[in-house]
Amino acid sequence: VQLQASGGGLVQAGDSLGLSCAASGRTFSSNAMGWFRQAPGREREFVAAINWSGGSTYYAGFVKGRFTISRDNAKSTVYLQMNNLKPEDTAVYYCAASYKLVATALSDFGSWGQGTQVTVSS
How would residue 1 be classed by pLDDT, with cut points 50, 70 and 90? Predict the structure, then answer.
């Protein structure tokens, strides 16, 4: 599956931003989807994931309550709504597709988008 992420940008602390990831290729609805991020000098880390149907969601502790992941299987798109952004949320955000129906581990995701930069100023 091919993934194209969009929606990044420069915002101020406390602002909101929405990311989208459009998928093409094999059947989107059979894949768990996830968002990861990577800040300069740091390893890529898990942000949020959603199971194949959208019925279950998973979040990293540092974004819980602020970020919401969702998906629209009819549009083959996964979303990440980010509220109350903090400077430490600054990173390149990647969407990813898993070969599993449910997944959160980085190693479970085999297809990756190109990344979109999110910069939060203080």
Answer: confident
